C-alpha cells in the first residue's frame, strides 16, 4: 500500500498523513511525502540507543522529555492549523522542554534539540531539506550523526539562523548547548 495518488493534491498535509496506512512510516517536508523505508541499519540503531540512553538518564526527574523515532513532530509554520500542517517529521531523537507542545500524537511545534543519524537513503534530506526546515522552525540545536565516520556535526541557532558547524569525532566530548552541565563522551557512543 502507498500514499494516495498525488495527481489531485498540490501539497500533502497532516490530515492526509493521518489517513495513510499505520504500518508504513512517512514524513512530509514542505508538502512532499517521503517514505521512511528501508529499516535502519544495526549500527544506526546502536548509536540511536546509546544517545537516547544518555539523554533519557540525564533528563530523569527534569521537565524536558526525550523521544526516539518513530515520534511525530509537526512543524506548523506560518500559523498553519494542525490539519493543514505541511511538515511532519520523525527525527531519530527529539528533545522537548516545553511540555505544552506534547500531545497524544507527538510534538506540535519545534523541539529544542533534534538528532538525525545519516543513512544513504536519507542523507540529502537530512543535510539539506531538514537543515533548512529545522532552521526555519527555530530548532535550537540540530545534530547530524555520521555513523561510519564516527562524527557528529552540531548546528546551534544564533540570531534565528544556524551558526558555523561544530564538528566532533569519537575522541571528543560534546558539551550539550541546551544542557550546559551535560557532557557526552563520543567514544562511548560510537563503541
Highlighted features:
single chain, 191 residues, alpha+beta, tt1808, chain A, four-stranded mixed beta sheet, 29% strand, globular
Descriptive account of the structure:
With 191 residues, this protein is of the alpha+beta class. The chain has one domain (8-189): Alpha-Beta Complex (tt1808, chain A). Helix content is 21%, strand content 29%. Strands 3, 6, 9, 10, 11, 12 and 13 form a 7-stranded mixed β-sheet that branches. It has a 4-stranded mixed β-sheet with strand order 5-4-8-7, with no helix packed on it. Strand 7 and strand 8 form a beta hairpin. It is globular and about 45 Å long.
Work out the strand percent: 25-35%
The name of the CATH architecture is Alpha-Beta Complex
Question: What is the end-to-end distance?
Answer: 38 Å
CATH superfamily grouping = tt1808, chain A
The CATH topology is: tt1808, chain A
Could you say how many structural domains there are in total? 1
**Strand tally:** 15
Poorly predicted ranges: none
Average of per-residue pLDDT values: 92
Tell me roughly what share of residues is in helical segments.
Answer: 10-25%
Question: Regarding CATH, which class?
Answer: Alpha Beta
Decide which structural class fits the backbone: alpha+beta
**What general form does the structure show?**
globular
